[in-house]
Specification:
The complex is a heterodimer. Chain A is of the alpha+beta class. Chain A contains 16 helices and 14 strands. Chain A is globular and about 70 Å long. Chain A starts with a strand and ends with a helix. The C terminus of chain A is likely disordered. By secondary structure, chain B is of the alpha/beta class. Chain B is 37% helix and 11% strand. Chain B has 12 helices and 5 strands. A 5-stranded parallel sheet of chain B has the order 2-1-3-4-5, with helices on both faces. In chain B, α11 packs antiparallel against α12. The longest helix of chain B has 12 residues. The chains are: A alpha+beta, B alpha/beta. At the A-B interface, α1, α4, α5 and α6 of A face α1, α2 and α9 of B.
Chain lengths: 440, 258
């Protein structure tokens, strides 16, 4: 990380390798006489060619292969893949215990990913530590408490997925095997403990100093009539968009820019970037939070729409509380399915399917074309971080001029923190470059 | 500065999952942080304590010219290099490009191929430098990771079995899924370490930990073909996954790919 004053009086702040994000990104800022000249949030993670790997593979392999795009949110890829493949095979929805188990598994991923980010990656910014490990020297209970809360998410993934990273139990049509009622109930006490800890820690996180900053975001998230969205819903935006999932490509598009191995996404009609992730889900689905979680939001000082991205930490904790709560509901209602999966046959469908789900970081889009032989002809996947990348730069363009009075090192740290607001998963974002690029 | 051993964690082309395994040691992380200085771990900390390092954990495969140079530097500043996960030990899922023409890939899928710098292959770290220990798995087992780090800190040999997944199935009491259910499974030639999860949930092994010691892929493949458990295309898919470029699996997949 360097700060240089150049001969012409301009100042350059460079962070070559951003810490506490997943994957490889950098930041470059140029300032001339207190005027911001240039900001660049770059992604230099090497592309891994997933689109090419998927072509010619069997439709049943998509959940296993796409999981490897990201070790932090493999369930998001597995869920996008199975829903898209089922639709390609003519099955729009699977109801009952399989639907519930998918939701339960996703709750596990939300918990582990949100708690990891909020307390091990983001909180050190607010408390002025280089890392959670440094933070643990002064606040051992907070860090160990967070690790314990995170572990419960992994335990859910272990039970339903077989393991927490790259679960093996997810298949097109459902699961290879379903847990017993007893196994599900076995997690109950632990999840309840996680819920209590997450509620208790609100008292700490509400005291964090959130930098003064607001953006006029166009939020994009899923919305479902009956629940806070995870696997299903229409795509809605705060500017009034309300479309079916299969209409997505008519409204969103990507630009390929030189400085990044991930694409920048914009809305087609406005050419504006948009914001996806916890703040977007929260703003567009606040009414779907149970009343007691809405009360907690009010108690920590949040309204039904949050436009300060630094406060995403609070929203992540509230969403974690929701995930623990929802996991308990699913356990209490759970009945073993007659069969752990339904038969899915590529002969029966249109051969093209789309699945959009809510990854911890925002909407994750999958689209596949498959043949009657079940082999994949084409894959297109859009990760949440590539959708947010342009928005992140936009935030910096606005944030830096408003905070020019800060010392360089402080300004640099705040800029890093502003990027971490999005919990960017850079490993994901650029692995899709090959999948999402427009052919011209 | 303390006298504690210095641990560094490096990322090459990968999904981050194996280094996440370190943060997934929820019960042990703070103990580890007490025993070693976590000197370089960008995913977790802004602080960078300069090398040399006692132990470097390397995740990911070599896929770019930059990574090719970087790995040499890491070897120079590290007493011990331990590679973690299928990407680092065999090239990972991205090594599937080794079986295709990369120019074709790039020219057909990129709007601006000139922006993209990539090597024609994805290769294991040990193809480039001397590696002191290779820890397998996609993802690795966090318990095996703790064992390996612990062993090197205490200057003893890591206790990591190289036998096949079959041994783990027997130990768990899982009936052989291939014999009893007729499901394709490459557990007999795959190294143990995952605790044979897949057969226990009614699914055949698909090779996350790569080839076991002395794998007899020919015998297994012939048996599956003769008993109509898998056809050639399925055999190729099974061997050509996350450890596609591991020599034994590579040879096996090439044999049935026609």
């Amino acid at each position: 990380m360097t700060i240089e004053v150049n001969a012409d009086g301009t100042k350059t702040i460079s962070v070559d390798y951003l810490a506490r994000v997943e994957g490889e990104g950098n930041l470059h800022i140029e300032i001339e006489k207190d005027k911001l000249k240039h900001v660049q949030f770059g992604i230099f993670e090497p592309p891994r060619f997933f689109e090419a790997f998927l072509q010619g593979r069997k439709y049943t392999e998509a959940p296993d292969i796409t999981a490897r795009i990201c070790g932090i949110c493999p369930v998001a890829y597995q869920m996008g893949a199975v829903h898209a493949m089922e639709r390609a095979c003519g099955v729009d929805k699977i109801e009952g215990p399989i639907r519930e188990l998918r939701r339960f598994l996703y709750c596990g991923e939300w918990i582990q990913s949100h708690i990891l980010h909020a307390f091990l990656l983001h909180a050190p910014d607010f408390l002025n530590y280089e890392s959670a490990i440094h933070m643990a020297k002064d606040h051992p209970d907070v860090v160990q408490g967070a690790l314990d809360m995170k572990k419960i998410g992994n335990d859910i993934m272990d039970l339903i997925g077989g393991r927490a990273i790259h679960p093996v139990n997810v298949r097109v049509g459902g699961f290879y095997s379903a847990p017993t009622v007893k196994e599900m109930r076995g997690l109950r006490d632990e999840i309840k403990k996680g819920l209590d800890s997450a509620i208790a820690i609100l008292d700490l996180v509400k005291t964090f100093e959130y930098p003064d900053f607001d953006q006029d975001y166009d939020f994009v998230a899923l919305r479902h009539p009956d629940e806070y969205p995870l696997n299903e819903g229409r795509v809605v935006s705060s500017s009034g968009l309300d479309i079916e999932q299969h209409e997505f490509e008519n409204y969103f598009e990507e630009e390929h820019v030189e400085r990044s191995s991930a694409l920048h996404c914009v809305m087609k009609n406005s050419r504006r970037p948009y914001h996806t992730g916890p703040l977007a889900r929260y703003a567009l689905n606040y009414d779907k939070f149970p009343a007691h979680i809405q009360d907690m939001a009010i108690d920590v000082g949040l309204g039904p729409v949050v436009t300060n991205p630094f406060q995403s930490l609070l929203v992540r904790v509230l969403e974690s509380i929701y995930a623990y709560d929802e996991a308990l509901r699913i356990i209490d209602d759970y009945q073993e399915p007659d069969a752990p999966f339904v038969d899915i046959d590529p002969q029966n469908g249109p051969g093209k399917g789309i699945g959009i789900t809510e990854a911890p970081r925002g909407i994750c889009f999958h689209q596949y074309e498959i043949g009657r032989d079940g082999l994949i002809k084409k894959a297109w996947i859009m990760a949440p971080t590539s959708q947010n990348q342009k928005m992140i730069e936009d935030d910096l363009w606005k944030f830096i001029p408003e905070h020019m009075h800060l010392e360089d090192e402080r300004l640099q740290w705040h800029c890093e923190q502003a990027i971490r607001n999005y919990d960017p998963c850079i490993s994901c974002s650029c692995h899709f470059l090959n999948l999402t690029v427009k052919r011209s | 500065m303390s006298n504690k051993p210095k641990l560094a964690v490096w990322k090459f082309s990968s999904c981050d999952g194996c280094q996440l395994s370190l943060l997934d040691c929820e019960d042990e992380l703070l103990t580890i942080a007490g025993a070693v200085d976590i000197a370089y771990f960008v995913e977790a900390s802004r602080e960078v304590i300069p090398g040399p390092y006692t132990i470097s954990l390397v995740e990911g495969s070599v896929t770019t010219p930059h990574e090719k140079e970087m790995i040499q530097h890491i070897r120079e500043i590290s007493e011990v290099v331990i590679t973690i996960g299928a990407c680092a030990t065999s090239g990972g899922i991205q090594s599937l490009k080794n079986f295709a023409n990369v120019d074709d890939y790039i020219n057909t899928v990129y709007a601006h191929p000139e922006y993209i710098k990539t090597l024609e292959t994805s290769t294991a770290i040990a193809d480039h430098i001397k590696v002191d220990f290779e820890l397998r798995g996609c993802p690795i087992s966090k318990y095996q990771l703790l064992e390996v780090v612990n062993a090197f800190l205490n200057k003893r040999k890591p206790n990591i079995p190289t036998y096949s997944v079959c041994v783990e199935c027997k130990r768990r009491g899982t009936p052989c899924i291939m014999v009893s259910e007729g499901k394709a499974c490459i557990g007999p030639v795959t190294q143990a370490g995952c605790n044979a999860i897949c057969p226990s949930i009614n699914r055949g092994c698909f090779g996350c930990y790569g080839p076991c010691e002395s794998p007899n892929t020919d015998s297994l493949a012939t048996w599956m073909l003769e008993n109509k458990i898998a056809d050639k295309a399925e055999l190729v898919r099974l061997f050509r996954n996350f450890n596609a470029d591991a020599p034994a699996f590579k040879e096996a997949s090439k044999k049935y790919d026609d």
